[in-house]
Request: fold
Amino acid sequence: MNAESINAEVWSAYGTHHIRRGTPLAEVERIDWGPGGTGPGDVVLGDLAGRRVLDLGCGPGRHAAYLARRYRAVVDAVDASSSQIERARAHYASVPGLRLVAADAVEYLGTAAPYDVIYSLHAFPYLDPHRLLPALAVALKPGGRLSFTALHTNSHGNGPATAIKPRPEILHLAGGGELTVQMWVLTPKLWQDLLERYGLHVEDISALDAPEENNHASYRLFQVRRPARIPSRPRTTKPPAPHAALGVGALLYGPRGLLLGRHRRGTWELPGGTVEPGESLQEAVVRELREETGLMAHPANVRLLGALHDHVGEVVRVTIAAHVTAWRGEPANQSGESVGAWRYWPLDSLPLHLFECSAQVLTAWRPDLPIDHPAARFISFADPQAPLFSSLA
Reply:
């Protein structure tokens, strides 16, 4: 059993223990970030009125209920422990604006609409950061705020590790007994490096120490932002093989949003790829769409917008921007393809790390999108219905 599965079972046992004991839930009057109520309170979360807020690892839901009541925020509170959510529902099911969800955090983030604010009290170290942080990066709206606490030193004085792996920690039960959890207890620098790797900017890290003289417990409060503008990055530093490269990038945009898939190297991109000999540009779009996503389209419904050209190393790269106006089916992962995890994204919450070519196509289509990418020359077609080439020799 892996560390996360162990933790889910332990916290379910923890919640069941308190249900059997009938442990009362004391109401809170502010966010208790650190031990003994230490920390800056609610101010780090910014203006919450009417905002979409996520409490990640909410436990019995006290803080989520407080924020929903105090600020009239729309708060989703998520925890992998069904017994903890049971405790929360017993007390706060009728709180307006509060939704209590029993779910794995990462699986939930993969389907939820983006949030203005995400916060977490001590729950981060129970999840593998390489699984959690990429999901968080796309679950925040551009400019959104993330605040969380992480264990730095336990009550015995054992400090953080410099390796990204979990270690056992003891969870004491009220009335006696203990459980063993697995925690990623990392140095602040390692946390910051991980956050930056996944596109999140760390604004502040503060220490929160236990007020008791003989208690060495210390936490770190991280205040983090998702950049307001969406960055792009190269998929790899290795240029393509030295030849002229002609490809297509397909825009599928409708009421559900813009279709993007995740490459195995970490970039998000439009359907598309290399034009094969003997096919028209419209036919290349239809073929790539079918091969990568399983969606069906007709060449007559492919509108060519123009040509982008830049260079990678010594190779001139030409990308044809195409708008697919009609298609059939649901996008799905296809065997043998390097791009998958297809989903529709709202234009005001596009994911981080767009592939350069896709970023260039998007800004050629919608110049007002806040996307940064290497410069490329765009040549608009006088007749957007006509292909640039009828065939390739």
